[in-house]
Amino acid sequence: MEDPRPLLRVGALAKSFGANAVLRGIDLDVRRGERIAILGASGSGKSTLLRCLNFMEIPGSGTIELDGVVLGRPAAGGARAYREPELVPVRQRIGMVFQQFNLFPHMTALGNVMEGPRVVRRMPAAEARDRALAELARVGLAEKADAYPAHLSGGQKQRVAIARALAMDPEVLLFDEPTSSLDPELVGEVLGTIQSLAREGRTMLLVTHELGFAYHVATRVLFLADGRILEQGTPDEVLKAPRMERTRAFIARHQEFRL
Amino acid sequence: MYRWDFAPVLAHADLLAAGLLNTLRVTGTALVVGVALGLALALLRLSRRRLASWPAGFVIEVFRTTPPLVQLFWFYFALPLVAGIEMTPFMAAATTFSIQSAAFFAEVFRAGIASVERGQWEAARAIGMTRPQALRRVVLPQAVKRMIPAFMERAIELMKTTTLVATISYADLLYAANEISQRSFRPLEAFTVAALAYFVVIFAASQAARRVERRLAASGDSTVR
Amino acid sequence: MGHRWDFASVLDNHEALLAGAAGTLRLFAICLALGLALGLLVGLARSARSAWIRLPAGAFVEFFRNTPVLVQILWFYFALPILLPFEVGKLAAAALGISLNSAAFSGEIFRGGIQSIEPGQWEGARAIGMTPAQAMRRVILPQAVRRMLPALTNRAIEIFKMTTLASAIAYVELLQQGRLIASLNFNPIEAYTAIAILFFCCLWPLVRLTYFLERRLARSD
Ligand SMILES: Nc1ncnc2c1ncn2[C@@H]1O[C@H](COP(=O)(O)OP(=O)(O)OP(=O)(O)O)[C@@H](O)[C@H]1O
Ligand SMILES: [Mg+2]
Question: Whose C-alpha in A108, A223, C83, C173 is 20 to 30 A from the C-alpha of C162?
Answer without folding.
Answer: C83
